[in-house]
Design brief:
The chain is α/β, with parallel strands linked by helices. It folds into 2 domains: 72 residues, no CATH class; 200 residues, Uracil-DNA glycosylase-like domain (Uracil-DNA Glycosylase, subunit E). 42% of the residues lie in helices and 10% in strands. The chain has 13 helices and 7 strands. A 5-stranded mixed sheet has the order 4-3-5-7-6, with helices on both faces. It has a two-stranded antiparallel ribbon with strand order 1-2. It is globular. Bound molecules: uracil. Uracil binds next to α7.
Length: 318
């Protein structure tokens, strides 16, 4: 019985440390707890009681909640069980309704690229701010691909499929991206694929996506920058306006039609903006496909890949 009570005490302490100041108990539970405490107290060695005993049964608040449960004030700790609580410890958790905090400092450890990436992946998957913003049962999404990849594709944010699978670009846009990569003579596993955002910007429904806010993008940018640092690709391909804005900084005057296909730079690495595969899905014309394809040929040439005559003729009108 003492062990079970100790477990209850530990649980209450953990809740208190997380900032919980009150718990609700049914009358029956409160009675059982009292009986258990008296029984354990009677059996205990009086010398060790103060160190191991569970807290004194909690004080009840005068007005119980309407659902019949009772409010119990948690003790402040052993030996201070009856003192009123002075200040709640700061909660360690980050709530979804809190404003997005300033960007985190990401200090990559020294070591092999694979180890550094594993460290970074763990850091992002455990990021409390990211986790507070994914819906229950959904996942924070980190980049995928070899750390030796020469080409780094960067998209916007996970969508519905991605937050379920925890992998970027696995939905319809991802399938198209995989085809584009295939057209370049590469497999998906030979390139790195990441996103500006590590979580799906919150939507009231499971369908549709919204662009991330400037604060959301700024928060995730150090994680993306660190992925770029580890991979050190020869080229970054920014897929769509959000990726361009995230990587190059927002510019309200920027138009994708003007910046796509022209070289820029991020962290000293050549960056080529092109249309997002979702845009291609919505604008399924030979002309748009050819524009993206010309961008991909530029990428191939930049990393030193040969471009065949057949590849040169893709999406050309006859
Ligand atoms: N669109 C993106 O920008 N990223 C994904 O991971 C999926 C769809």
């Amino acid at each position: 019985m003492r062990e079970e009570l100790q477990a209850v005490v530990e649980e209450l302490k953990a809740m208190r440390d997380a900032g919980v100041s009150h718990v609700y108990l049914a009358d029956g539970t409160l009675g059982d707890l009292r009986a258990a405490v008296s029984a354990a107290g009677a059996a205990a060695d009086p010398e060790s009681a103060s160190a191991a005993a569970p807290p004194t049964p909690p004080r009840r608040e005068p007005t119980p909640p309407s659902d019949g449960a009772r409010e119990m004030v948690l003790p402040m700790g052993e030996g201070r069980a009856r003192e009123p609580r002075k200040a709640a410890p700061k909660p360690a958790r980050h709530g979804p309704s809190e404003p997005v905090p300033p960007p985190p400092a990401v200090d990559l450890p020294a070591g092999e690229a694979a180890e550094r990436m594993a460290w970074l992946r763990k850091r992002v998957l455990e990021c409390p701010v990211c986790n507070a913003r994914v819906k229950p049962g959904k996942k924070v999404v980190f980049g995928v691909g070899p750390v030796e990849a020469e080409i780094f594709f960067c998209g916007e944010a996970p969508g519905a499929e991605e937050e379920v699978q925890g992998e970027p670009f696995v939905g319809p846009a991802g399938q198209l991206l995989t085809k584009i990569i295939g057209g370049m003579g590469l497999s998906r596993g030979e390139v790195y694929i990441g996103n500006i955002m590590n979580w799906r910007p919150e939507m009231p429904t499971s369908v549709g996506n919204r662009p991330p806010t400037a604060e959301e993008m700024a928060f995730c940018l150090p994680y993306l920058r660190a992925q770029v640092e580890v991979v050190a690709p020869k080229v970054i391909v920014a897929l769509g306006k959000t990726a361009v804005d995230g990587l190059l900084g927002p510019d309200p005057k920027r138009k994708m039609g003007q910046v796509r296909g022209k070289w820029h730079e991020f962290a000293g690495i050549p960056l080529l903006p092109t249309f997002h595969p979702s845009y291609l899905l919505r604008n399924d014309t030979l002309r748009t496909k050819r524009m993206v394809w010309e961008d991909m040929m530029q990428v191939m040439e930049r990393v030193g890949m040969p471009v065949s005559e057949r590849q040169r003729s893709y999406f050309l009108t006859r």
